[in-house]
Amino acid sequence: MGTEAGLELGPSSLTDAMYESVRKRIVNGDIPQGEKLTEVRLATEYKVARPTAKAVLERLTALGLLRRTAHKTAVVPVLDQDEIRDLFFSRVTIERAAVSTLAETGEVPPAAARAQVAIEYAARDHVFENQVEADIAFHTALVAAVGSRRLSRMHELIIGEVHLTMGQYQAHRTAEPSTVASEHAAILKAIEDGDPAGAAEHLAYHLEQAQSRLLNSLPKD
After folding, report:
1. What is the pLDDT of residue 99?
2. FRET label pair with 148: which of 7, 85, 93, 220, CA 20 to 30 Å apart?
3. Which of 205, 209, 172, 203 lies closest to 187, judged by CA?
4. CA 32 to CA 30: how far, in whole Å?
5. Segments in 146-195 forming alpha helices (H)
6. Cα separations in angstroms, 142 against 62, 97, 107
7. Phi/psi zone of residue 64: left (φ > 0), alpha (ψ -120 to 50 degrees), beta?
8. d(CA 96, CA 102)
9. Which CATH architecture best describes the domain 81-217?
10. pLDDT, mean of each 10-residue run, the chain (221 residues)
11. Angle at 110 between CA 140 and CA 91, to 5 degrees
12. How far apart are CA 94 and CA 117, in angstroms?
C-alpha cells in the first residue's frame, strides 16, 4: 500500500516500473479482490502524473488484472467458479495446441527450460512467489515458442487472470512443492521425445490438477 513518502520505483522507465509494482501488489493480494484503483490513488501513492497512472491502469485492465466498465472505477476482479472453469477451458485449448506443435520438432524452448529450473529451485526453497512467477514464465514460453503472434496474443489475454488467481488464492500451496515441477518436467520430456499426443496429455493433466486445486481454494459459501 502507499505511504506518505510514496512508493519507490525501480530504474526502468517510469510507466513500466510502476506497472510492474502494481501488478505484483495485485497478484500477491496486497491489493485485494474487489478493491478499487483510481488514477488519483495511484498518482498519489507513486507520486507520478495522472496520465502515467492512467496508462498503468489501462495496461492492467487489458491483461485482466483489473476490470472497468464505461465511466466506472477500475476494480480488482473476483472470479467465481464458472469464470475459472471458462478460463481453464480457454487455457488448455491454447496450450495443448502449443505443446503438440512443439513436440513435432522435438525441441524444448530454452526459455521454458530456464523457467523449469527456476521452478525447481523455488520448490526446493519453498519460495511461493518465485514459483508463481516461474510457472507463468514456463507456460508463456511454451506458447511463444510456437511463433504464432495470434496464438500468443490469445494466451496473453488470459494469462493475466491466471496469474491473478494463482497469486491471490495461492492454490499452489495446497500441493507438495515438487508436484508442479514434476508435472512440468513430464511436459518437457514429451516435447523432447517428439510425442505430440503425450505432450498434450501431460499438459491437460497438469492444468486439470491446477484447476482442481484452485476451485478447492475458493471461499465456501
Report:
1. 98
2. 85
3. 203
4. 6
5. 149-169, 177-192
6. 22, 10, 11
7. left
8. 10
9. Up-down Bundle (1.20)
10. 50 81 87 91 93 93 86 87 94 97 97 96 85 91 97 91 79 73 96 98 96 84 61
11. 20
12. 23
Indicate the pTM of the whole model: 0.80
Residue 7: per-residue pLDDT = 63
Q: How much is the pLDDT for 6?
A: 57
Every domain of the chain and the residues it spans: 14-75, 81-217
CATH no. for 14-75: 1.10.10.10
Q: What are phi and psi for residue 113, nearest 5 degrees? A: -65, -40
Output DSSP code: residue 70.
T
CB atoms within 10 A of CB 95: 25
Query: What is the grid cell recorded at 143?
Result: 506458447
